[in-house]
């Protein structure tokens, strides 16, 4: 992307605090999102964020190799440039951390992709920034999947998140530092209590970790970018295997540790991670939102909810500042975003006002759906109570009968809501929460599940269930694929669609006519099995090839009928 030259006077004006566009009252994790402010502007692909004892922040710029010192409402100042940075694609100057004993030693740590062809860790002092000591090197690098987040844990050790560098086999190879979370001393050495003697490897089986944080109990969490299906937040336990490339998201293999939260890659592509107010905050790049995940005292996640959806574009990093505000950086000049004149920016969210109403409403109860058609449904629930008064309700919706994240689809001042624009023959889940004038949010209601009937006003319908019969190194057979008439009248023909993973090819099929467009496969009923009475079913099957080492199988099966 070509650099845009902006006069210094304009940059200075843009650096003034700008009120955010979101106006609704919203207190989550102790922060008031209705009073968010754009506090710093004019950054070039900020990646890492760390705080100095004076309350200012250091920001690493991925493509320029610069470390900037920033303060809200002031023009950023370059304080160091990391030598030997190779910036291409997703690589460059990535994570940054400040020594827990900075007041005594003045050390700043940086992780970057080097011109020597690896990822490496250096430390420097701002009083002599040109002197940079390499603490650890040799981490495989690529133009993507370089990981990059670094952070000091509550144990005083330095944790480094790496990616698989585009070679998924690295993740399961404990002799490779790629696809890992590494734990080392502040000088780059191997701690004596690491799970593998003589190794910096803390956990393995990771694809691309870009977020690290800890809760007050010392539990560690990591945000990880998936491939085509599931992004993850994992609770990190020393010595554990997180499954990549065999598992993406949750799987049934007891050898692997499952994530505590998953999203589709379109909803998230998570990078930065922070913890405050019993809540995980997850900065989403492709999802262009800040996910908030409530955690119980035992670390059990509640329903994730999104803030800032599409308000600021791609979000890279989130951190709790020493000022008590939540700091969030954008990443719109990284070649994948749509920058505005102010980009890239730091958005700050203030803590909720103290001394006022801090009591949330009770959770709505009795959520139910009625009058469901192929394109809409009506929700009703029992009112919440509040010490001051409920001002309204947020309606949340998630796709499917399970999995997938809830997102807000509307608000209501009463105890009913009509949701329209739904897709025929599709399942949705709903929840409702109440809010009061101070912006306090209630717990969510019970979940109501709705399946819309087929379109066209008929009473027919069909379902599809696929079974993996056999697999081998570069292929598999899916059989039976069972199509059932779930309606109350006969159907005369059916169509099944599903998605092939990238690189997979159908090599044969039976009991259906298959057509392929890109990765979407359409299977239409044959002459002998299209007519099904209520409750009747039939089967089809197909065979496909895939690259060696790939363990994915098709997904997204859906059945429709006339």
Question: Could you explain the architecture of this structure?
Answer:
- The structure is a single chain.
- With 562 residues, the protein is mostly beta strands.
- The protein contains two helices and 44 strands.
- It has a five-stranded antiparallel sheet, with no helix packed on it. A four-stranded antiparallel sheet has the order 5-6-7-8, with no helix packed on it. Strands 9-10-11-12 form a four-stranded antiparallel sheet, with no helix packed on it.
- The model is unreliable at 1-25 (pLDDT under 50).
- How many β-strand stretches? 44
| Poorly predicted runs of 5 or more residues | 1-25
Strand order of the largest sheet: 1-4-27-26-25
> Share of helix among residues?
under 10%
Distance between the termini: 49 Å
- Rg over CA atoms, rounded to whole Å, is 26 Å
Average pLDDT works out at 89
Number of helices: 2
Supply the helix-strand structural class. mainly beta
Task: Characterize the biggest β-sheet.
Answer: 5 strands, antiparallel
What form results from the Cα inertia axes? Answer: globular
Strand content: 35-45%
